Amino acid sequence: MTKRTKTNPALQTMWGKADNTRLETTIADREATIEELKTQLEQLKSAPDLASGVQRYSVDAFVPLRLREGLTQPRKHFDPTKMTKLKASIAKVGVQEPLLVRPSPDGKKLEIISGERRWISSKELNLADIPAIPRELSDEDALEIAIVANLIREDLNIVEETDSIVALISLRTKVERQFVPSLLTKIRNQRARYESSDEDIIEFLNNSDDYSRIISIESISKIDEILKGFGITLDSFVSNRLSAINKMPEFLLGAVRNGRIDFTKADLIRKSKLAGPVQEDLLEEVADQGFSKTTLAERIKEIREEFTANGDASEGSGPDDISKQIEAIKKLSSKRLLKRIKGNPKLNRKLQKIQKDIRGILDELEAIAE
């Protein structure tokens, strides 16, 4: 049975009045800074007494956040170990931090914007009700808050965190998510190589890409503001995050996203330049045996020595094979093949990945040439 209590005044200050009017806080305004939102969420997280003054709802009243096509939630994996710890904490002291939710379109359920782990743990513990703060929010506002809330918790892996930041930049700049990494790389390269001003960068983008109706000085300022809010520079984000992730095979990225391996270890496997199947076997070893980075580095050295002793190539395809692959890729430019590929979603996704990899190679070659 649902239990209702008076809303705590401190929460009214942070999240607006306790009715169903649109959220008038910093995040819904779209002009708020990330720092302001971080402060609010951190206050909510660090004040256990706030939950005692918040309206409570039946555990069965909630569902995960449901967004329209094209928008996806930032978190896709819940670490089992952390879930166990959270469940033990809730069993001992209850849900101390209220969920942030919004009514579903039909008004029958409450969609969870922030707090899905708390809800799952509460269900498994058979709790009757939990505290929550309902607000009317658009898909974009709900997703933006979900992304920032996840980033603030600082328990995302690097791939999830990078995906979330890219998604946040996409929402703020109106650039399609798939094009954000390329855009950030271009802006960073113009700054690093030519010391270009933001005005010069806009002119460069307008002359070289179809960003003329989207990217502005304000867009670039928003990008810098978002990254600064999380203590990251554009140069560092591109060099240490996007570049490494772009070069990492999908099987390694998937393992990082699923919590099977730490990003730094996955990157060590990638940098080993061992053949793909060997890297996959090595990933399984690391996941099963929990290698430290030092142990992994020693294992990579052992494998290389084994290949050397057996006269096997560990670097993958040789120059002749690469030339043949390039010739094969050229054939994909025929209108007949392109039509067939675009009509097949699976093949189309693979072609897009090839195009992305080629763009990455060309960008790196251009950087070397400079």
Structure description:
The structure is a single chain. With 370 residues, this protein is mainly alpha-helical. 61% of the residues lie in helices and 6% in strands. The protein has 18 helices and five strands. The chain has helices spanning 9-15, 26-29, 34-45, 80-93, 116-124, 139-153, 158-173, 180-194, 198-208, 217-229, 234-247, 250-257, 263-271, 276-289, 293-310, 319-331, 335-342, 345-369; strands at 56-58, 62-64, 99-103, 110-114, 129-134. A hairpin with a 6-residue loop joins strand 3 and strand 4 (110-114).
What descriptors fit this protein?
single chain, 370 residues, mainly alpha, 5-stranded mixed sheet
Total strands: the figure is 5
Q: H/E series, N to C?
A: HHHEEHEEHEHHHHHHHHHHHHH
Helical fraction equals 55-70%
Instruction: Count every helix, treating DSSP H or I runs of 4 or more residues as helices.
Output: 18
Major sheet: size, sense and barrel closure?
Answer: 5 strands, mixed
Radius of gyration: 24 Å
- SS-based class: mainly alpha
Spatial strand sequence of the major β-sheet: 1-5-3-4-2
Q: Return residue spans where pLDDT drops below 50 for at least 5 consecutive residues.
A: 1-35, 313-319
Task: Determine the N-to-C terminus distance.
Answer: 68 Å
Give the overall silhouette: globular
Tell me, rounded to a whole number, the average pLDDT.
Answer: 77
